[in-house]
Amino acid sequence: MDIHILYYLIISTIMLFCGIYGFFTRKNLLALLISVELMLNATNINFAVFNRYLFPDALEGHFFTLFGIAIAAAETAVAIAIIINVYRNLKQILTDDITDLRG
Questions:
Q1: What is the pLDDT of residues 20-47, one digit of tens each?
Q2: Fold of 5-101
Q3: pTM of this prediction?
Q4: 3-state SS string over the chain?
């Protein structure tokens, strides 16, 4: 049984818009990080799906997806390190309080 490409694109679009909504509405740094990860995973789904349907014998889309996963892992590690430093200095991780770090 083959699933139509439209269903994959609908799920990817929902994930992308949930990530965008979360990025613009949340003030917690961890929630922002999760929103960015949702957006990155939506693009990874698109890479894999378009590769499967447009070029079924090629693997370029899958390689782009693996590269995107590696970039997301590195980005998450750096972001969590920054969030830990913000928490150590301010005892909370809200975006409103990051401007207090300037001085």
A1: 999 999 999 999 999 999 999 999 999 9
A2: Helix Hairpins (1.10.287)
A3: 0.84
A4: CCCCHHHHHHHHHHHHHHHHHHHHHCCEHHHHHHHHHHHHHHHHHHHHHHHHHHCCCCCHHHHHHHHHHHHHHHHHHHHHHHHHHHHHHHCCCEHHHHHHHCC
